[in-house]
Amino acid sequence: xxxxxxxxKSVLKLVNREGFxxxxxxxxxxxxxxxxxxxxxxxxxKEDLINALYSMIVNExxxxxxxxxxxxxxxxxxxxxxxxxxxxxxxxQPDNFSFIEQYTYAPFLFKENQNDNFLLLSPIYKMMxxxxxxxxxxxxxxxxxxxxxxxxxxxxxxxxxxxxxxxxKRGAKQKFFDAAWSAIAVV
Amino acid sequence: xxxxxxxxKSVLKLVNREGFxxxxxxxxxxxxxxxxxxxxxxxxxKEDLINALYSMIVNExxxxxxxxxxxxxxxxxxxxxxxxxxxxxxxxQPDNFSFIEQYTYAPFLFKENQNDNFLLLSPIYKMMxxxxxxxxxxxxxxxxxxxxxxxxxxxxxxxxxxxxxxxxKRGAKQKFFDAAWSAIAVV
Amino acid sequence: xxxxxxxxKSVLKLVNREGFxxxxxxxxxxxxxxxxxxxxxxxxxKEDLINALYSMIVNExxxxxxxxxxxxxxxxxxxxxxxxxxxxxxxxQPDNFSFIEQYTYAPFLFKENQNDNFLLLSPIYKMMxxxxxxxxxxxxxxxxxxxxxxxxxxxxxxxxxxxxxxxxKRGAKQKFFDAAWSAIAVV
Amino acid sequence: xxxxxxxxKSVLKLVNREGFxxxxxxxxxxxxxxxxxxxxxxxxxKEDLINALYSMIVNExxxxxxxxxxxxxxxxxxxxxxxxxxxxxxxxQPDNFSFIEQYTYAPFLFKENQNDNFLLLSPIYKMMxxxxxxxxxxxxxxxxxxxxxxxxxxxxxxxxxxxxxxxxKRGAKQKFFDAAWSAIAVV
DNA sequence: GATGAATGAGTTTTCATTCAT
DNA sequence: TATGAATGAAAACTCATTCAT
Lengths: 187, 187, 187, 187
Description:
elongated, DNA-binding
């Protein structure tokens, strides 16, 4: 059994279950079936542990979201695929979503990655520039486009996880994609 | 001098400056120019204090966002006004935004208002039902519409406060509104 | 309304209800319908207040216990009367009993009256010396006699107040008196 | 070195020296040569710690007081032995006595053992029922008998520890036992 | 590598007392 | 006299981190 992975998984589970506020080393150890001291064999401390988990998730996300992406495909198709990938990633691993959200909104909690907060959005930027060149995506600032993609996705996942909507319902995702696309597409 | 308000303002300032994680009663007291014990004259404890602040901000937001709303106005106009009000509220009081975000993403931190997390969205729901009736807003589930309104707004404010975009730039807001409207409007 | 008396009564009630451990000035004030600061107009502080109450009760007890005492009466009669007075005093004012007990067993709590712990027993000493002279009470050390009088009385009251016995039952007191007398009487 | 025992011993010493009122965790730790936090490894908190100590002492007492007790012995002999055991227990470990007294008279301080207050008297009850059957002990309610045994014992120990009497003096105990026996014995 | 008892600085909270009104 | 808001020292308790085994 890989203790390092077990520890990271514990953090993920606990942050999701009880929030950053109640996260403590003893519980992490207990959840991972490991002694408290063992954590310090793999991580410098609490901060390091959390930052490591964050990096891990961001990497996984970026890999996942780009699956099926091909420059040759129409932008719209790539857009749909990416949204789909992103949503799938979080719906199948909801703990990741909760963790990322909490991490992002904890200013100065763990300074190291301060500038990486939007790192996980990099694939989206790529697609936007192509779309603009081809004239299928509105010629408005990237940051505004970003808000029109990332924002709805973020909220719809949140609503789904809070059982306020059901993205698995027949046609639900399609409606969402179409509407989201309208926001950024040239008419 | 109202000590209760001073304490609430301190929390807001400190949460924004250093995050929930580093918030402690001694600093709150110092920031409010008050003795530590004084906080307990007005609040039962840390949780109560934070919940009180949350309620206060949500109330202020709801009042602010509905300014200028009139049933007689076209839905689109009300939509623009509301988005505008919301953005203005947070841009002029950015600490409020940061606080609400952190509060929302801290599961089980302070259970009391668990169901109020989306309370501050109530004005939006009102507008959506009217728009659907009139046929100007897409006939898709409210939760999806919500994600298309709340999501972009949320992200654009975040980007603005992080200096990744500038909503005060000439024409910026208008572009944003138009695009956001496209997402929810019937073509 | 005499605020000083109200304060003393509050202490008595609260010590009885919740114990010394939970006694605090704010509750005393509330119970007495008085502001916290008012207590300090009548007493130097918490210690002084409690010591004053102790002295008050001891005085009342001493007065009460000697009612009907007359040097001319037979020692046995005076003994019965005193036991009877003592028991009546505490049964009609059980708060007094609880207070005295707690005060007595709180070493160094309030140093002032340290040596007065057995002060309230002075009437008993008087009777013992007379009884010995007359040859009706055993010629054993006063301290042992004291234990044989004070001890049973103390315990029987405690048991009565804890509903483990009922001194108001017909004949109960008489049985108790007779047995207690046997312990100290010359056969 | 057993830290748990060291902590319990510290509480005993400090309660005896300064009373419940002044008992605090920092001093307990210091007295036990242990860090403050260590106490919480073995006890949930102050209440738990004190309740644990109470249980420990009551158990020790009950074991000690029954030493030499045999159903075959005459009741009077068992009575003398038990009184002797009890007195010896408390005279050799006076801190135990003070602690038990304070614990008993602190209503609602620590609720858990509320009904065990008289638990430590259980051996006495046993003896009384036998004595009554044999006709050597007065046929009066157990509760009254109890007061005539427990009461004097309690008070004489208190007086001894307060240096108001000296049970180690030649013949002192015997006088006390004889008198105490007279109270409960059939003439 | 692995443990988990122990630490003690730091945190929340309480409360006797003061003092401006 | 009387008030009760305010104080701040002291209390109970937490928890990241260390280290002997």
